[in-house]
Amino acid sequence: MTSPLTFAPIFMERMWGGRRLESDFGKKLPPNTCIGESWEIVDRPEAQSVVADSPLKGKTLHELWKRNRHDIFGDVPETPRFPLLIKLLDAQERLSLQVHPPEEVAAKLGGEPKTEFWYVATADPGAELFLGFRELIRRERFKRALDNGTVEDCVQKIRVKAGDAMFLPAGRLHAVGGGNLLVEIQQNSDTTYRVFDWNRTDADGTLRQLHVDQALQSIDFTDVGPHLIEPKGEVLIKHELFEIEKWNLDSSRGIAPRGQFAIVCCLTGSLRCASVDLAPGEFFLVPASLETRQLQPQSEGTSLLRITIPNF
Q1: Contacts of 110 (CB under 8 A, 6+ apart)
Q2: Known catalytic residues?
C-alpha cells in the first residue's frame, strides 16, 4: 500500500435532488438530471464502490473486504460486507417523512436495520431537519394525524446551519428539509419506510408509494425532542457502528495508528496524504497497512470528517 484509496462516486437521481453536488463540490454530474445522492463508499449487491486509482484500480469494495481485509481494514468486526454506507445528500426539496427499522422489527418485516449520522455541510438560511416528535404521542393519534393531513404538526423541526450534526438511531421518525447538503454515514442498509410524502406526485401525477403499516411498527413513539449533537472536543459520536470526528487541520497530523483504517471526507480547504489530494466533498480510505499516514493541509481553513469503526 503506497497511497489512500479513492472510489468512483455513484450518482442517484431523486425527485427532490438538484445540482448542488456539482456547484458546491465539483462533482461531474450527468447532464439534465436532479441528483439527490452520491454514494461514495458502498458495498451492496445493487451498488459497488470501485477503486478509481492506485494499483488496486478496478477492484470493488467487496473484493477488498473479502480478499484484503487485514491489509486494508485491520482488526474489524466480522461481517459479510463492509458495514458502513457513506453518502452525500442534496435535498433541494424536502424528503419524505420516514423511518428505518430497529433490528428486531427489521427481522420481522424482512428489511435491514439502519442507524445513521448526518453532518450538515451547507444549509440555506432557514433550512430545517425533521427529527422525532414535538411531544409524547400515541400510535393511534399519530395515525389519525396521517389520515387527516396534520402529521407535520406532530414532528419536531430544528433549524440547522453548516457544521451541525445529528445522530439518528433506528426507529427515529425523520425527514431532511429542503436546502440541505448533508454527509450521511450509516449502517450498510437500504431499508426505508415512508410514512408521509407531503402529498407529492411524480411526473405522471401518481402519489409515491408509502409504507405506513411497516413504519408504524418501526417508529419509536417515545422519541420526543431529540437534540443536535454537542461535540466533545473533536469527537462528534462514538457508537458501536462508527466513530466520527471533526478535525480542523492546521498542521500535519497522523490519521490513525498503523493497523487501523480510516475514511476521510474533506469539508473545506484541501488536504493531501501521500500522493493523493482531497478537495471539499471528496473522500479517501487510508488503509490499515499504509506507511505514509500523515494528513497535510494544502490551504488555510482545511477541515475534515474522520470516520472509522471502533474496536471495542
Answers
A1: none
A2: 194
Q: What angle do CA 290, 296, 302 make, to 5 degrees?
A: 125
Q: Say how far apart CA 43 and CA 231 lie, in whole Å.
A: 29
CB 242 within 8 A of CB 229: no
Closest residue by Cα to residue 8 from 46, 56, 52: 52
Which of 90, 96, 123 shows the shortest CA–CA distance to 18?
A: 90
Q: Is the model's pTM score more than 0.90?
A: yes
How does residue 203 score in pLDDT terms, banded at 50, 70 and 90?
confident
**CA dihedral sign, ordered 27, 31, 32, 33:** negative
Query: Sign of the CA dihedral 147, 153, 156, 162?
Result: positive
Q: How confident is the model at residue 258 (pLDDT cuts 50, 70, 90)?
A: very high
User: Cβ atoms within 10 A of the Cβ of 26, count?
Assistant: 12
Residues 6+ apart with CB under 8 A from 185: 84, 85, 86, 116, 117, 119, 242, 244, 305, 307
Per-residue cell: 118 = 448526518
Q: What is the pLDDT of residues 85-130, one digit of tens each?
A: 999 999 999 999 999 999 999 999 999 999 999 999 999 999 999 9
- Taking the C-alpha atoms of residue 88 and residue 85, their distance in angstroms, rounded to an integer, is 10
